[in-house]
Request: fold
Amino acid sequence: MAFVKDMLRMWAHSWKRFISIAMITLLGVAVLTGIYAGCRDAFRSTDRFFDAQGLHDVQVLSTAGLSNGDIAALRKVNGVAKVQAERSQEVTFDLDGRKSATMQEIGTNGIDQPYLQEGRMPKKAGEIAVTRKFIRDSGKRIGSRLTVTPESASSDTSDTNDTNGADGTNETNGTDEAPSFPTKLTIVGVVLDPQNLSNPDGYSAMTSFRSTATTDYTFFAPSDGVTGTLYTSATLLVKGAAAESTFDESYENTVKQVTDRIDGTVKTDRQKARRQELLDAGNRKIVDARAEADKKFADAQSQIDANRQQFNQQVDQIVSMQAGAAAAGAAANGANAGAAAAAGATTPQLDETTRETMRETIIAASPELTQAKQQLDQAQSQLNEQKASTEHTLKTKENELKTSIPQVRWYVQDRQSLGGFSALKSDLDSIQSLGNAFPIVFLLVAVMMSLTAMARMVEEDRSLIGTYVGLGYGRLAVASRYLLFALLACLVGGGLGLIAGFLGIPAFLLVVLQGMYVMPGLRLEYDWLYGSLGIALFVVGVLAATIYACVQEMRQTPASLLRPKAPRAGSRILLERIKPVWNRMGFLSKVTARNIFRFKSRLIMTVGGVAGCTALIVCGLAINDTVADLGIKQYRDIYQYDLMVVSDDSDASAMRTKVASDGRVTSSLDVRIESGDLAISGGGDGDSGKAGSSGSESIQLVAVPEKHLSDLGEMVTLQPVSSGMLGTSGVGKTGSLKLDDDGVIVAQSAASALGVKAGSKVRLTNGDGVQATAKVSAVNRNLIGSDVYVSETYYAKLFDSKDAKNTKNSKSSKDSEALTWNAMLAKLSGSDASQTDYAESLEEDSSVMKAVSCAHMADSFKFDLMGAVVALIVALAGGLALVVLFTLANTNVSERVREMATLKVLGFFDREVHHYVNREMMILTVMGVILGLPLGRLVGGMLTMALNMPSLYFEVEVKPLSYVIAAVATMAFALLVQLFVNPVLDRIDPISSLKSVE
Reply:
């Protein structure tokens, strides 16, 4: 019992060490669990939401649309739980300019169900539900009416399945009809699209560089009123996928098994079957057209024959009358009247030659008969020509049918192809990677500080340990005094750390996340396993340091422990050998130098601890500086143009005329801009048929006119880059990169994500879904967005080849035509504000689809999630620095109580004692700061390289001010610690302290 009381008394006396170990553990556990818990809570809530709304696991698209046969084939695939055929149509409407939307049918099989936020779900034809983004932009509300106009090429399927009939008109093949939606609409509800969780009222509204939507809005409509038997896509749920977390590798493996099966025989068979359906439909149309034409020609021939027969009868009647009259006259001049009477009573018999001669004479003598005969002959001639022309046309169509109908291509996509899903997953994965790296530094510092504190604690009880061992107490029992002390400190600190880690930090992160994404049903959850392991990790580290300190003392005999520890032998330090410096130093300066360098363990612990904390602060500020400079570097340095204007192909000429008439442009470059995809080429054929896989990146494909390739360098800074170490990259000379016809120039942001470099082969997909294998001629410095530059000639080589034609739908009509330059890069006159206003005014023009001001993008670019996490890390690193300095300062004072008492006996005033002790700590702190600054840059570069996010490349940047802030913050913490240490020095009693034995 006395042993226990003495142990408790010792614990109470060492409350400062207890607090230090507990605080370090608290910070470490909070960092270890907090960022993880925040990301995990977001992962789980979105996973539950996706399961509740039935977000598809697999989506199948086709260049020729999907038929009922395709849907039936997908249902038979092993592992498929549900299949939902979906219809959609692109429409336009007027909303401060021309805007586009996708009319999406609400599925009846429970897949991709929109989440109702306000109002009710649409049920009748003409009713729609819209997103909150549309409500915010349009100012409309529930009950408002809207009229939309279907686009001329509203869906790929509607054009793909059109072939020219015999009469030259476009008709839908067979019984397949493209989807069609009502155009008079009424808003009845506001919903959240499960495929896009971006918060239109939050920070995500500013991050337009990550938008992957092809239309401005999505309208959800019921099946009532939707016509068409051809489906735009098919969405699938996979058996067992809902039981897995959508963000885990196990989910990806489950889905991949099904996509591999679809990519196998199902995809190949249905592509062939669908094309054969199109061929059969085309042949049926030709047969029907021939039969219809033959019927029309037969009717026309019958009409001509009837008219000719009537004409011939009329002429024959005149011939007969003339012949009779001639015979009667001849008889009147004869010998007797009986012969004349007999001749008048009978018609004279004429031979065929005489009759035909008389017919021709009669027709020639009558203008009316001549005109009638000419009309009959002309009608017969025209009919014969039409027969020949129609037959030639039908023969030509029969011969061209196989080449005019493209090869059908299926694209099997998983959730990674959804822009909203991939952006959320990338954001959370990147933040989680920071949360996995920083606790390592906290753990190392905790072990170092625990070793320092516990070693001093054990050393102070040296004689007491010898007494207990001499009295027969086992070494384990004696060591338990210190092990239990460290364990209790870790458990208390770890428990508080779990509260902060599973409640405080996640609540902070989720507030920021909800400013970027809408997450229904979000709640904080505790992970018993991870929380327990988090505490156990620090318990093991601290107890290991405590065991080491105990072993170092207790391996001696009780007699040795009862005797005072021999003082450290005197020795010279390196500085003493530098005579010019040493001889000019004062007495107290020499004492300080000896105290710093003679006690190596104190030097290593103090410098290492301060360096680690400083490195953490620099690392956080480095990430912050890197993110903060992205917008300026991209939109001020890399993009030299001031304005980018994009229009529909049909409005391209009107757009250029509008911009030119405004008189704001000083120089411009016409280009073609398309949304596409870049992927690592598989096998070199560039046709994997699976877009949006983990090895792909959404890009902005920029085609440049052949005559103006050299002008691209005036609009965009072209600098070749190569991979560097620790987040750096080698950047070539400005202007040394040229666009040519041998390959494409890929943006650094996309190349870094995919591991692409100059000379690589990539699979490039253009805006029409055409895929081709391209060579990368160079990688260009680019930080935001993923631009791929291609020359006009190389574009035609890639996408106008026979191979490419077979993969594209009939929507692409650029096979034999010049490219339509649907965009303009321009330099403007005027201030940044006027340029921003001009871009906004252009968007109101009906010919302009999008107008982007680089000045506005540079000023408005934000990455709030990363900034919030960096602020959190810097704050925790600052707290760790404060605790470390406090622990080291108190340990330093406790080790030198007799020394401080001696100084007081010698006549040192309190302020002089403060200066004597604090100067050593400040020097050690400065040394730690000097070591920590480059270490922070090193760690910051490594962590920044790990932040692999879509359409972003983090070019590590640490501003001088950040180094100053980190150094000043650490020194300020050191000065703050002095305020706590100085009263301890003042309370040292010289007499009692000199009586004690250290």
User: Anything to note?
Assistant: The longest strand covers residues 665-680.
